[in-house]
Amino acid sequence: MKIIFTKHAELKFKDLEEQGFKIVKEQVKNALNMPESIIKVEKGRFIAQRAIDETHLIRVIYEKEEDSIRVITFYPTRRRKYEG
Q: Which of 11, 38, 70, 84 is deepest in the core (most CB within 10 A)?
């Protein structure tokens, strides 16, 4: 399935790198293709999350379209915040 990044999501890569947390598209795609969990949220949106290192997860907010996935945004967070 094709993965489309919104303008906001594209800008997020640079913003995070400027803050000292580099995320690459492959990490976002891995979270979408092989998520550890998926949470359905409002308005047809979903959150896919996957570990990116020992202490962090990446959370990807997206919408499913007919033949693609549209990435709205994503962010790294500490694992302990979202894992039991």
A: 70
* Residue 10 token pair: 């594209």
Tokens standing for residue 55: 């202490």
Can you give the residue ranges of every domain in the chain?
2-82
Task: Determine the length of the chain.
Answer: 84
37 phi, psi to nearest 5 deg: -155, 155
pLDDT in tens, 40-81: 998 899 999 999 999 999 999 999 999 999 999 999 999 888
In CATH terms, the superfamily for domain 2-82 is RelE-like (3.30.2310.20)
Q: Which residues pair with 68 in a beta bridge?
A: 2
Whole-angstrom CA distances from 21 to 24, 32, 37, 67 are: 10, 19, 22, 31
